Amino acid sequence: MKDAFGLPQSLLVLGGTSEIALATARRLIARRTRAVWLAGRPSPDLDRAAEHLRGLGAEVRTVAFDALDPAGHEDTLGKVFAEGDIDMVLLAFGTLGDQARDERDPQAAVRVAQTNYTGAVSAGLVCASALQAQGHGSLVVLSSVAGERARRANFIYGSSKAGLDAFAQGLGDALHGTGVHVMVVRPGFVRTRMTAGLPEAPLATTPEAVAAAVELGLRRRSETVWVPGALRVVMSALRHLPRGVFRRLPV
């Protein structure tokens, strides 16, 4: 069960090699979390992530999980929940894709959409149902400010995150009053392996900063968290710019 501040004792990470997810797990382990499941494709990176968290004092188990295999989500994730209550699920998988390549290759674009949106809808609903059945828990969904308004530079990725964000907000409304808390996290540009080599955007942040924001959001039982917080004002302004003006911005 969660402590008085809303922090979990048990954590399931969907996307077990995500740098943001692992920074969040480290922070939560330092506070209270003792049991962690890392769900992801079997790989040396997943094994190393598990060993690292074990070294911090947590009991860590891995489970084979593929966002692109929604038919297997109910069985795979159901086995995790059958082992005991999960206080928090962190939905952290996703792919940035390559905008220029994906525009030329519709199947590559579809893969981005299936990973970031379709896979998340499937896994999110399975986990939400399990959390509701146990009567408590938090589902934390890593969205992105890219979903706030489609940009020429990454509209394929941005559109998939827009769908994910809308889904998570609606799921939060559906679960209101059930004991299950849904929190949408909207980071801006985060310095990770996924963004290495890309031009850095203003207000760039780090996995550790996102992890700190997730912890604060859990304590406050927030429904939406912006990282950094200033992006809430920035994106509100950008969202309402006339389209002709928006097209000319260097964003």
Automatic annotation (TrEMBL):
Keywords attached to this entry: Oxidoreductase
InterPro entries (UniProt xref): NAD(P)-bd_dom_sf (IPR036291), Sc_DH/Rdtase_CS (IPR020904), SDR_fam (IPR002347)
Enzyme Commission (EC) number: 1.1.1.333
Annotated coiled-coil segments of the chain: none
Sample GO molecular function, one term: oxidoreductase activity
Family: Belongs to the short-chain dehydrogenases/reductases (SDR) family.
Name of the protein in its database record: Decaprenylphospho-beta-D-erythro-pentofuranosid-2-ulose 2-reductase
Source species: Streptomyces fimbriatus
